[in-house]
Amino acid sequence: MKIYHVVSSIDPAQGGPQVGCLRLAAAQAALGHEVEIISYGGSDIRQRALRAAHDVPQLAKVRWHLLADPDKIERVLGLRAARALRNVLKDASFVHIHGVWEPILKHAARIARSLKVPYCVQPHGMLDVWSMQQKRLKKRVALLLGYRKMLNGAKFIHTLNTDEANLLDPLGLTPPRLVIPNGIFLEEFADLPGKGYFAERFPQLQGKRVVLFLSRLHTKKGLDILAAAFSMLAKSHPDVDLAVAGPDGGAKDGFVSLVTDLGITDRVHLTGPIYGAEKLRALMDAACFCLPSRQEGFSVAITEALACGLPVVISEPCHFPEVRTAHAGAVVSLDPANVAAAIGDILDDPGMAAIMGENGKRLVHENYTWPRVAELTLQGYASPSLSAATGSANLRVAPDHS
């Protein structure tokens, strides 16, 4: 097949859609398909993306069509992207669209329809109830101005978990929903580094245990919940500090201010964005991973933490109940007290933490790998039974541990 992935940006600082797009494309290319990515991404972003994905197997087999970074007019109209897509998609067998609310994505769907090329839309959590409540009026207007047509014209909606699929119900979309999660490349976790990363970067952490947050610093990631939870935990665990790693998604200043107000500045350490080998070193050096998000599609960071044998504390809106059923960590409400208690339980029982770590490794290695994800998406692309006429039933092709 000749597969085109369309995403608004390949900047790793933008989070899940970019990370998932690159890795899925690489996994499909490894299976012998011609795979290309179309995106905005000037030279700086391209270099940053290549550094972040340096160890992704088979990524060199993927061809990139990168447009110059959009100016204000291009962000609104996407006319330059439309011209490029019109030329590139002529020989496509299938188009995989990552995200929702960008003109480049709407143009990709429109051009695919005009060429009678089937496509799917992978919202990456952008259509669930919480996400739709953000800038609600703007999104409702956007649906009227072509984005609903983009969604309803898809062969299927690629959701990352059953909860995300069910949360699409209020929109009344017509295509079937195919549930396929994200994954990992086992090769990236075959030779894991040793400990010492945090003490090396922050000498004051020598001899301390670290709770690690690894994601964009964005409101939806629950940084305020994390700060409140850690302020509770810090009182009873003087040997534990919090490391917050990730690019600023608009919530950094508010988080720093809250940490100051809570009087825990000396116990909280911001590393900035970390990728590749540096990210693995951080995961291997932490005692616990915590992501109390208000909304997630399927967090690659959680999957990577599990693959490193790190027990995790995640919120229910992360939509990863397998963590609980596999006894690989704790799935809790967004109440800071519950988050703090779950972290404390893991820190206070090293034996249980070790068992959780092994369970998490097994869960990911057996069920969530990019080659398997690639096979499932290809089955969806080729299936003659999938179309808008199928209706909006959830078709789960991922492992089910519930």
TrEMBL record:
Alphabetized InterPro entries for the sequence: Glyco_trans_1 (IPR001296), Glyco_trans_4-like_N (IPR028098)
Q: Which GO terms describe its molecular function?
A: glycosyltransferase activity
The alphabetical list of record keywords is: Glycosyltransferase, Transferase
Show where the Glycosyltransferase subfamily 4-like N-terminal domain sits. Answer: 15-183
Question: Record's SUPFAM superfamilies?
Answer: UDP-Glycosyltransferase/glycogen phosphorylase
Glycosyl transferase family domain location is: 206-362
Q: What is this protein called?
A: Glycosyltransferase
Species source reads Phyllobacterium pellucidum
